Automatic annotation (TrEMBL):
Protein name as it appears in the record: ABC-type glycerol-3-phosphate transport system substrate-binding protein
A Pfam family hit: SBP_bac_1
Tree of life domain: Bacteria
Signal recorded as keyword: yes
Organism the protein comes from: Hungatella effluvii
């Protein structure tokens, strides 16, 4: 990788933080609305400038605009910005935080108007290839230092995820960890007389029913952020995966005998479990109308016994509900036993540099500082239990949160590496840029089951499978990709898919 060395950071800031909370994580209360933006402006005292030529040495006033959805680390980001501010007096940071659902439409609108923020992540479900095809980002190579890159985990530099050829375009926010484990509220389970954490479908359904019956209309078995289809999609895929369903991770494609596997026996069993919970009255009645952060908040308030989300819940609960007693459990498995592992999360692109940014050097300096141990943002996020850092030295020193350790251990036990079409043929990246979403999606079907607007989920899953197969075949033909690339007949869902398995297919 070609890199351009840069001088030491030597600016100092006045900062404006605009936080539109609601992604997958801050305290938003129980309403179905996103909290109004809040702003914090802090004056910074000037420091002597260094010998490097930077904005701090001139009278130029620079505004850096940053947009993301990292609300679980909001408090740490504010601390980071204040500290960074002390070193950067001529820069104003406008930081906007959106929900994941809000983010994609907002970013697309901003970019189409030629007014994109300096730094922003790739939306969930979009590939780097698509973003580059739309000319969203510019390479980071000329603006980040080799010293910085050497602090990162080597797995970060992945073709088609963060890189295209020799060019680096994005930096991941964290190391991939599955975000589908179940949290359980210990006090709620104790009040319902549940002494054993459920492991199977029937045990889970029984526990949810018992919690609901003893809750007297105020406490329910399960709560989810059912307004966010991405969360329901992940829930359905995870339940099907442990049942042996050969289904790809969210926004990825795998086939079984040339067909989309959404109507598999394992997926039907997963939907049957959710339908049973609805029939038992065990689903919190607000589930389909609330976001993931709202569900997290209501779980912490004792309104439900179980919640399926990610490690990101840990820091907000520690801050807002320090007395909350909760634990982490694996995804419930069919009564007949576990037949597969949850899909291991692939490395994902995150923050990139806007192609039309007027201040690429300053934006890249801010991005590097986010991962600089001296600034404390990474160490704070890891010690809080927010995520596993892409900086290995930070994890070694600061992974001390016991619930985080438990989450990481359980996730490591149940997650399995699944095959990826892009590893088999890089032309699959072009496929992902070409393929269109099929509706109603898997998440929408589960949402329909929860709201009882869909009673025949088997028919809907079959329609989704048939329509997806047609679309995947079309997209493959459009980019000149062999459709058979998505079929992995030697895949055992109980085992990690390895390089040897790829080689055996050649």
């Amino acid at each position: 990788m070609k890199l351009k060395k840069m001088g030491a950071l030597s600016l100092a800031i006045a900062m404006t933080v605009t936080a539109m909370t609601g992604c997958a994580m801050p305290s938003t209360g129980g309403s179905d609305t996103t909290a109004a933006p809040t702003q914090e402006k802090t004056e910074a005292s000037s420091k002597d400038s260094s010998s490097d030529t930077t904005a701090a040495e001139s009278d130029e006033k620079i505004t850096l605009r940053i947009v993301d959805w990292s609300d679980s680390s909001l408090a740490r980001r504010e601390e980071f910005n204040k500290k960074y501010m002390e070193d950067h007096p001529n820069i104003t940071i406008e930081y906007t935080m959106l929900t994941i659902d809000q983010f994609k439409n907002t970013i697309v609108t901003m970019i189409k108007s030629g007014d994109g923020p300096d730094l922003f992540p790739i939306p969930t479900g979009m590939t780097l290839s698509t973003a580059l095809k739309e000319e969203w980002y510019q390479p980071l190579n000329d603006y980040v230092t080799e010293e910085f890159l050497n602090t990162l985990d080597p797995s970060v530099f992945e073709e088609g995820v963060t890189m295209k050829g020799e060019e680096l375009y994005t930096i991941p926010e964290n190391m991939p960890v599955v975000n589908c484990l179940f949290f359980y509220n210990k006090d709620v389970l104790d009040n319902a007389g549940i002494t054993k954490v459920p492991e199977t479908y029937s045990e889970f359904a029984e526990a949810c029913k018992k919690i609901t019956e003893t809750g007297n209309g105020e406490v329910f078995g399960l709560i989810e952020g059912g307004k966010q289809l991405n969360r329901l999609d992940i829930l359905a895929r995870s339940l099907a995966a442990v049942g042996g369903g050969k289904v790809a991770p969210n926004a990825k494609v795998l086939t079984v005998d040339g067909k989309a596997p959404y109507d598999s026996e394992a997926m039907n069993e997963a939907m049957a479990l959710m339908e049973q919970l609805v029939s038992d009255g065990s689903i919190h009645p607000d589930t389909v109308n609330i976001s993931a952060p709202e569900a997290r908040e209501m779980f912490a308030q004792g309104q439900a016994g179980f919640l399926c989300q990610g490690m990101w819940c840990i820091p907000p609960w520690a801050q807002s509900y320090p007395d909350l007693k909760y634990g982490v459990m694996a995804v419930p498995v069919p009564d007949s036993g576990v037949k597969g592992g949850v899909q291991q999360v692939e490395s994902a692109p995150w923050m990139g540099l806007y192609k039309q940014s007027k201040h690429p050097k300053e934006a890249a300096e801010y991005l590097m500082a986010l991962f600089d141990e001296d600034y404390g943002y990474q160490s704070g996020c890891v010690s809080d239990g927010n995520y596993v850092s892409i900086v290995p030295s930070v994890n070694e020193k600061y992974m001390t949160n016991e619930v985080m350790k438990q989450y990481y251990e359980v996730a490591s036990e149940i997650a399995k590496v699944v095959p990826a079409a892009t590893t088999r043929d890089e032309k699959a990246y072009d496929f992902y840029a070409e393929v269109k979403d099929v509706q109603p999606s898997l998440g929408a079907i589960l949402q329909g089951v929860l709201s009882q607007s869909i009673t025949d989920y088997s028919s809907e899953l079959k329609k989704l499978s048939e329509a997806s197969t047609v679309e995947w075949q079309r997209a493959s033909e459009a980019v000149g990709l062999d459709y058979a690339t998505f079929d992995f007949p030697n895949w055992d869902p109980l085992k990690d898919y390895t390089e040897a398995d790829y080689a055996a297919l050649k």
